[in-house]
Design goal:
Structural class: alpha/beta
Radius of gyration: 21 Å
Helix content: 10-25%
Bound molecules: flavin-adenine dinucleotide
CATH architecture of the largest domain: 3-Layer(bba) Sandwich
Oligomer: single chain
């Protein structure tokens, strides 16, 4: 039996783990993929206080992992499949066994949204749904499309532009939804072009994308673009990983908490991108994790 179970080893979960052991708690983080979460997969980490210059997501995640292990946080790579949050003892069933604790912190973030368009499933991993940090070099001198217009999408487009011959950002809104710094850099990059008010409708190809169908939402015109061997990188929002928590009442799919990160259920805390909040960044995720662990330790 652990003192605290934490689901997810992104910034919120790792921060919670470090703070929990500092309060004398025996803490276990359950993580289905890798320590670092979403930020561990980005090209460059930006705006987080104290980060290294040009820090990659991979190096940031590696430092997070070292810090957690050195602090004495236990990490188990396991997929959480079912959770029981009511009652004094919380139960978490994973593909590696069942775990119990009096306190639990839900920090399992969000999953990137898929488009659900024709060709997406067939070409997933074969040119579609790529990860810029991992795959950008494979598109050196080639053409890529980035779907999305928020900070993450434009930042990854800027990174891709340092490899690809041509980068096209496809965004449904009339304006990019990113910070001014990224908008300015995208405008200054000679090989980035914008398709605003546009929507990717379908992708055609067998082993690689050959053609894209793109709708101009302003004119309702649909264009077919030939782009054999292109890469399509998807940064079009995210869906909270809350299907595990039917016992909680959600708001637009996210978990409501108070300022102490307490959910409506005693002994159950939520931290990071998975909870109802205004700003989803590493800075706010680690803050949530710290608060959740300190409050949980006092529970
Ligand atoms: C493209 C992009 C770029 C970004 N760049 C920046 C940036 O430069 N600076 C910044 O501050 N923010 C950035 N962000 C935002 C930042 O990544 C998030 O706010 C932050 O990662 C949230 O941390 P989290 O711990 O709440 O969730 P996550 O990082 O999503 O971590 C959740 C973890 O839970 C795990 N998990 C999920 N379900 C289960 C399950 N059933 N069982 C076990 N484990 C599970 C996941 O594998 C994951 O590791 C970016 C986001 C995107 C999409």
């Amino acid at each position: 039996m652990y003192d605290i179970l934490i689901i997810g080893a992104g910034p919120a979960g790792v921060s919670a783990g470090v703070y929990a052991v500092s309060r004398g708690m025996r803490a276990l983080i359950l993580e289905r993929e890798q320590v670092g979460g979403t930020i561990g997969k980005v090209s460059i980490v930006t705006h987080y206080t104290g980060q290294q210059p040009r820090e990659t997501g991979a190096s940031f995640a590696a430092r997070m992992k070292d810090q957690a292990l050195q602090a004495g946080v236990e990490i188990l790579y396991a997929d959480v499949e079912q959770v029981c949050l009511t009652g004094e003892i919380k139960t978490v069933a994973t593909n590696k066994g069942v775990f119990r604790a009096k306190r639990i912190i839900l920090a399992n973030g969000c999953t990137p949204r898929r488009l659900g368009i024709p060709g997406e499933a067939e070409l997933w991993g074969k040119g579609m749904g790529m990860n810029a940090a991992r795959d950008a070099a494979a598109y050196t001198g080639k053409e890529v499309f980035v779907v999305g217009g928020a900070d993450g999408a434009v930042k990854e487009a800027l990174y891709l532009a340092s490899f690809a011959r041509k980068v096209t950002l496809i965004h449904v809104e009339d304006q990019l939804g990113c910070i001014a710094e990224f908008r300015r850099k995208a405008a200054a990059a000679a090989n980035i072009s914008l398709r605003l008010g546009a929507q990717l409708m379908a992708i055609y190809g067998h082993d690689q994308p050959e053609r894209l169908k793109i709708a101009d939402l302003r004119t309702n015109r649909i264009e077919t673009v030939d782009a054999p061997g292109c890469g399509i990188f998807l940064y079009a929002g995210a869906v909270p990983n809350t299907a595990l928590y039917p016992e909680l009442t959600l708001e637009n799919g996210y978990i409501p908490t108070n300022e102490r990160m307490e959910t409506a259920l005693p002994g159950v805390y939520a931290a990071g991108d998975i909870r109802v909040k205004e700003v989803r960044q590493v800075a706010t995720a680690v803050a949530d994790g710290a608060i959740a662990a300190i409050r949980a330790a006092a529970y």
